[in-house]
Amino acid sequence: MTGNPDGTGRRPFPGNIIPKDRIDPGIQAILDLPGWAPNTKGSGAFGLSRNYLTSAPNYQWRRQYDAKLTYNPTSKLSTFVRFGFVDHNANTSGIFGSLGGLPISRANTGSGFVQGHLFQGTISATYVASPNLVIDGNYGYFREDFNDVPPRGDENLGWTLMKVPGLQTNRKTELGWPLMLIDGFSQLGAANNFEPHGYRDPTYDYAANLSWTRSTHNFRFGFNLNRQHINESQPQGNLSYIAAQGGFQFSPGATQLNGGPPGNDYNTFAAFLLGLPNNAGKLRLFPDDIQTRMKAYSFYARDRWQIMRKLTFNYGVRVEIFPFPTRKGRGLEVYDFDRNVMLLCGLGPNPIDCGINKGKGGPTPRAGLAYRVSESMVLRAGYGITWDPINLSNFERLNYPDLVQIALNRPNGFSWATTLRQGFPGIVQPDLKPGILPVPGNLSIITLDNKNLVRGYIQSWNLTAEKSFGGWVGSAGYVATRTTDQLHQLEANWSPIGTGTAGQVLNRQFGRTAATRFFGTLGTSKYDSLQTRLEHRFSGGYQFVMGYTWAHGHGYSEATSGAVPGFGANPVAGVVIPAYYHMNYGNLSRDIRHNFQTTAIFELPFGKDKAWLQSGALARIVGGWQINALFSAYTGSSFTAIADNSTLNASGTTQRADCIGTSRKRGDIHQWYDRSDFGVPASGRFGTCGANTLTGPGLVNLDMGVDRKWRFGENSELKLRVESFNVSNTPHHTIADASKNVNSGGFMEALAIRNSGRDGLDERNFRVGLKFSW
After folding, report:
1. Going along 610-715, which residue ranges are E strands?
2. pLDDT given for residue 621 in this prediction
3. Cβ contacts of residue 686 below 8 Å, gap of 6+?
4. Interval 449-463 mean pLDDT
5. What are the residues whose beta carbons fall under 8 Å from the beta carbon of 771, sequence distance 6 or more?
6. Among residues 380, 341, 591, 336, which one has the least CA distance to residue 476?
7. Which helix (H) or strand (E) is 387 found in, with range?
8. 53-73, pLDDT tens digit by residue?
9. Which residues are within 8 A (CB) of 565 and not within 5 positions of it... i.e. 6 or more apart?
10. What are the counts of helices (DSSP H) followed by strands (DSSP E) for the chain?
11. Kind and range of the H or E element at 319?
């Protein structure tokens, strides 16, 4: 490359064409593969979007078995045992065939062959000691076994085909395609950064309750113990570009001129051709299985007090305790920010919890009131607090030293992290015996920090009015939650604007350049809603339920605790510089402002005891059928307009686009918002667009089904069910992550297909089921 490491002084190749001998040999090997070149006219500013059509077979198979045995040894004691088993498998091809890429079916984020089993069982007993005293208890078990292998998962393509140094291996968890993320384009190779993987995760649940009625009071006391075991062979990186097979992210900066025009898709693809990733990552799992253990205890006491015939008051307290999670044979690990070492809890001089004594929960109150205004109208109000149930071991399970993650990052916005000819350094298995391990500067980690750790709590309250009239029940209510001190994955190794890798906090102190995340809080997440419902319970041959919700949620990250700050672009559109944390606050991605849902069940009026065709052969054919329907209509989710990071040059932080005046929504899937209302920000500052201020396409959909029952004697029944999802076969569009980037030629195209929740399939599909009960 010509010019200087900071991107100044660069000159273009003659004719703006990269000479063939300058294309990286590993990339050239990919270019030589058949069947993945553009095959249709593209869209977007450069005609590079949506320029590839493909199809491939995929299947899903699911078998479910349930059994229940009830035994009542005495008139006071009743028991039952229930067991369920699900066997499922699927196979999904990548959109680029032998080159992989995203799965052609969005039913799962994985691709290749998937096989799994679900086991669930319950043992329950209830003892009626007296009319006023009832004791019950149950034991529940759930286990999920799951294995998947990506396409070409028995080949080491990163080495045998692409010849990238550092990818030589025969370990099964590191075979397959490397992950190649190309900003503005669909990814190549691996479909994600977590395959292949397998797990056997059991959950054990123990509960006991006592109910005692005395006068106008009904007291209830209870205890619950929940144990969650994670046993996973899952080499998953904590950053999107870190993968067991090797991962690379390509952006425009490596081929841009510093001070020249903004980068675009051509710059990005040129960086790909030259083998110059802005980020690269490689990981290895030690040992083959990750095993963590988590417990949660809870106790409660509640009184339902019938103050008067029309007024009932519920009040109580619940104590929730979350002990520090562990691994099998030792505790988790904690990074010492003062010494740049990892403390392995329970080994060497370290206590089993490494001194982490915060975030363990405690007592919380709950109360509710119901007032019967009349025989047909009830007012209800409630308030409660619960501790955030975040499972810290779920996030820390993929951590050093069990998972060694090399993260290579570019020193500035116009450089590259490595080349495909340089590849990755070797990975050495750490020695755990001392209990205190030095942490190399290029290894990505996550940690708990006692100075910042809290366990947030969730307040919820509601006020609802319910009215019944003529076989119908209607309700309207205000429902709200506040998640106070919601935990986020914050970045300790951030850098100020314009300083790149050299300005990272821990690089200046210890020479650390890799991500160093810890759990902390940014503030409170809020949700407010008006929820209405109109229901006709099943009678007269039909059931009808209609609901409408107006809602508004805002906070600092995605809905779930443990997310990184910001919202759902890839990379996440988040700001990790503490002075600018407030820029993460915006509409939640789940902020569906208007949501209308209707369900209906109708019995056909034919057959025995119906209005028509009550007997005869035709009655037996057309009688007994039910029709059901689900109609949905809701507004789109929020998103953020982002830009390439080269103008920001701040490690770990995503740049925003500039919003020029009011953003005008055109509502055209080829240009959802007017592109002229957005721009690439100047160097040295954030773009002016806010967090999640834009709204994507909404959704209108109809699902329908029919079912029929046949009875055999008193206790046996066969049920046939035929369902059609998306009856009208209407595509439900959304805006892909690449189309949220102002540097992309496909900016503001809403041509991606939404995962609408029906097993990830959006096109019209049919499902047929048979269920036999006896």
Report:
1. 625-634, 638-639, 642-643, 655-656, 658-659, 665-668, 671-673, 678-679, 694-695, 699-712
2. 76
3. 497, 575, 580, 583, 648, 655, 656
4. 93
5. 718, 719, 721
6. 380
7. strand 377-387
8. 988 877 778 888 999 999 999
9. 488, 489, 490, 522, 556, 557, 572, 574, 575, 576, 581, 584
10. 6, 44
11. strand 311-321
Average per-residue pLDDT in the chain? 92
Contact 197, 232 (CB under 8 A): yes
H/E stretch holding 620: helix 617-622
Q: Which pLDDT tens digit goes with each residue over 677-735?
A: 999 999 999 999 999 999 999 999 999 999 988 878 778 888 899 999 999 999 999 99
Dist. CA 362–CA 323, nearest whole Å: 11
Q: Distance between CA atoms of 532 and 379, rounded to whole angstroms?
A: 14
High-pLDDT (> 70) share of the chain, %:
98
**Cα–chain-centroid distance for residue 524?**
20
CA separation for the pair 637, 737 (Å, rounded): 13
Q: What is the total residue count of the chain? A: 774
CB 94, CB 102: distance < 8 Å:
yes
- Phi then psi for residue 393, to 5 deg, are -65, -25
Helix, strand, or coil (residue 598): strand
97: left (phi over 0), alpha (psi -120 to 50) or beta: left
The two structure tokens encoding residue 455: 């366990």
What is the pairing mode between strands 279-285 and 242-243? parallel
Q: Please name the residues in contact with 83: beta carbons below 8 A apart, sequence gap of 6 or more.
A: 66, 67, 68, 120, 121
Q: Are 738 and 752 in contact (CB under 8 A)?
A: no
Pick the closest to residue 461 from 485, 484, 477 (CA basis): 477
Closest CA to 514 of 491, 498, 488, 487: 491
- Grade residue 516 by pLDDT with cuts at 50, 70 and 90: very high
Cα-to-chain-centroid distance, residue 433: 35
